[in-house]
Amino acid sequence: MAQVTITVNGKKRTAEVEPRLLLVHFLREQLNLTGTHVGCDTSQCGACTVLVDGRSAKSCTLFAVQADGSEVMTIEGLADGDQLHPLQDGFWEEHGLQCGYCTPGMIMSAVNLLNDNPSPSEAEIRHGLDGNFCRCTGYQHIVNAVQHAAGTASKE
Amino acid sequence: MAASPVLPKLVGQRVKRREDPRLIQGLGTYVDDIKLVGLQHVAFKRSDLAHGRLLSVDTSAAEAMPGVEAVLTGAQIAEFVNPMPIGTPFPSPDHRVVAVDVVRYVGEPVAVVVASDRYLARDAADTIGVDYESLPAVVDPERAMTGQPTQIHDGFENNVAVGPVPSGTGVSADLQTVDDTAIEKAFADADVVVSQRMHNQRLAPTAMEPRGVVAHYEPGKDTMTIWSSTQNPHILRTFIAGMNGMGQDQVRAIAPEVGGGFGAKINIYGEEYVVAGLSKKLGIPLKWAEDRSEAFLATTHGRDIIGYIDLAATRDGTVVGMKLRLIADIGAYNMLLTAAIPTLTTLMANATYDIPAIRTTLHEVFTNKTPTDAYRGAGRPEATYFVERGMDMLARELGMDSGELRRKNFIQPDQFPYATQMGAVYDSGDYEKALDLCLKNAGWEELKQQRDAARAEGRLVGLGLAMYVEVCGLGPSSSLPTGGWEHSQVTIERDGRISATTGASPHGQGNETTFAQMLADQFGVPLEHVTIHHGDTGVVKQGIGTFGSRSQAVGGTALHLAGGKVKEKMAKFAAALIEAHEDDLVFENGRISVKGVPDSGKTFAEVAGYAYVPVPLPEGLTPGLSEEAFFEPANNTYPFGCHISLLEIDRDTGEPTLLRLVAVDDAGNLINPLIVEGQIHGGLAQGIGQAMIEEVRYGEDGQPLTASFMDYAIPRAADFPRFELDNTVTPTPVNPLGAKGVGEAGTLGSTPCIVSAAVDALSEFGVKHIDMMLRPEKLWHIIHGGQS
């Protein structure tokens, strides 16, 4: 067992973990943060995407011990109290989700995308979400959602 | 006098979804999010051989691991779990939930582990040693039909599961008499016949949430609660109760948040029976969560039908006859609806055309692959693909515009209801209107000029067009062994809020929103005052489920009828309270009042409160406001549409790029156009995926070659252009809403219109047909020599 200290959504968490414990299972099983989902086992689908030290990362591809000392943000930490993040608002406004399973990872990837490029073109959005699969929406409303958020953000 | 706020009518509006706040904040609860005290984890050891006889299964190492609660072989499981039941009347071979003697596809379970931790359960399963006697495997259904090189099941000669089953012109409903006169005359009289073998390839449904199940048997109460990622909890309850020797009153099935289904979560799987049966046997709660690589093997696949089409026409483009011989590769076993799915291909072979003679012949064949079952469209995309590709080939043969050939053969609006050669009765349609709108939106004539201009520059650009009609709103009960009705209960609570249940259990369709829109309008109350309950047989008394694009047409109608019943009763209470005649009352803006006198009445909540403390009780009434309705549709609905695509193929690499996808869909009346758009987008994405990049493949030895997202390509955001949608509205007379259903439509028109565009783009090379998917290598070979 190894001891890790990870700051998750602003709270410092210390735990004893198996060295092989995936970060996503640390979040889901030990911290009960079940908003981060597992959609594959080969790092393709992106349902497990979280922010590690501000950058998007697939939490099924990191061991919890690799995140030791990091700051992790999950979907549960994105809203500011009752105030939804502009991307959450965008996904709601533009019908950017159906079953909702890919949505937390999709939103966290989009956070990273807009951090890097606050005014992306449609092609940049589509390529920027290359690591996140959605089987329900055909992506068009997801693109609209990111554009909505980018517009909201640029107005602020 | 203060003016009352006026509530807008919501049906037909683009209302934001009420499901979303929880889902965008990570607060939805899917099966794998559920934790129970004492929960243990299940893992399956699966066959890595496509066909083999089990010689020994050694579980000793697994049993010795600390934390392992139980390890069971197929033979041990068979002591308390019966063979798999199916949901169709077709003959079915013995199918054990965990293999006992023989494994017949890679991924078939051979042993089960229960352990305290999910990692440990996997570790233990990995230690199980299995010795097989290898048997020959067969993956090509046409080879399997020769009986070589192997016989997969006893009693199914030449591996034929079903057939040959003839349908269509000259075939009596009981299949007892077959008269070939009309079909043979049609072909004898024809000027032109086009013929082609086509393969509608095998696909993996791949809902983003893999399957999962939690079962909790409580010995003290002799009850079972089962949570499953399912499209139909009531059907699950029926089968789980039956398989465990329990009454349906003793089993509660819950579909919590379900992360997509696409047909593959209709089926009741062996894992569900094993987890439930083991929870009962061990008396502890158990969870199994499928991983993705497992899902590619263990969750049913879709499509995989070979079609031999012959289309006969006169020189002026009038189609006079069609023959369609179908060979469905159903994999190793019959699952819940497996055998019924290809019958939907024959049912819809008439397409949108007034064809005087059609003959289909269906074989369903066992192979050493994962079983097939429903996948979005389920049999109808296959029919559409074969017929529409055939029509495109005919247009080419005749030198006709592909739209004009369709127009010449359409069933006309005044022919509805239209009894097809295949036994369907199409409810309503105006196919020419959808065609014309799609041609207009695409700019068909200008597109042709652009295509020709591009070709003059040496580019490979093609145009494709396809019509579709599909069968939705399943039932009626005569066509579904589960029953084809739907159920709803609407309750006006004591405070005037509305609770409603629906048996149409959603998994992304947004019923919590659309159904609330309907009730808000029906009762003149704010949307926020309505809650739709679903997915829990402990709360929703009866139901069938969500599949076959039936939620709105069947479930929505049941809701509407239950709402109507309770409204009628509430009007009687209101009439007594405000001393007016119930026929003079209107429900609007949160009040029930006399028509034309908005302030005459009482608030909705006041009338509700009176109904629950009815002093005095009006004569002839009982207390309370809660009514239920079953709706049994008299017929299916038949939505339709037209899709047009523009595609370019890179001459040097063979890589195809979809430039435009223009769709006109007619789903009848729409409750929420925003949600309808989302459904069409999603269907298009899966249809385009099938046409261009998706295919489940096996090696000759039955080894899967596409068992992860590294090998099986599902579309990403950059694979698509912006879809161009529009719609026509032809209401159905089958239900009072006029709604037809839209969940599967997008998968129908997209595949043939894209393949036809690819054939058009490569027409200079003399190619007549290209099988899906449009792999660049395949296209490159057509361009650079060597025919398809």
Can you walk me through this structure?
The complex is a heterodimer of chains A (about 160) and B (about 800). Chain A has 5 helices and 5 strands; from the N terminus they run E-E-H-E-E-E-H-H-H-H. With about 160 residues, chain A is of the alpha+beta class. Chain A has 2 domains: about 1-75, Beta-grasp domain (Ubiquitin-like (UB roll)), CATH 3.10.20; about 85-155, [2Fe-2S]-binding domain (DNA polymerase, domain 1, Orthogonal Bundle), CATH 1.10.150.120. The radius of gyration of chain B is 28 Å and the shape is globular. Chain B folds into 3 domains: about 20-25 and about 475-630, Aldehyde oxidase/xanthine dehydrogenase, molybdopterin binding domain (Aldehyde Oxidoreductase, domain 4, 2-Layer Sandwich); about 35-135 and about 210-260 and about 265-300, Alpha-Beta Complex (Aldehyde Oxidoreductase, domain 3); about 375-470 and about 635-785, Aldehyde oxidase/xanthine dehydrogenase, molybdopterin binding domain (Aldehyde Oxidoreductase, domain 4), CATH 3.30.365. In chain B, a hairpin with a 5-residue loop joins strand 13 (about 300-315) and strand 14 (about 320-330). By secondary structure, chain B is an alpha+beta fold. Chain B has 20 helices and 28 strands. In chain B, about 30% of the residues lie in helices and about 25% in strands. The chains are: A alpha+beta (about 160), B alpha+beta (about 800). At the A-B interface, helix 2, helix 3, helix 4 and helix 5 of A face helix 1 and helix 18 of B.
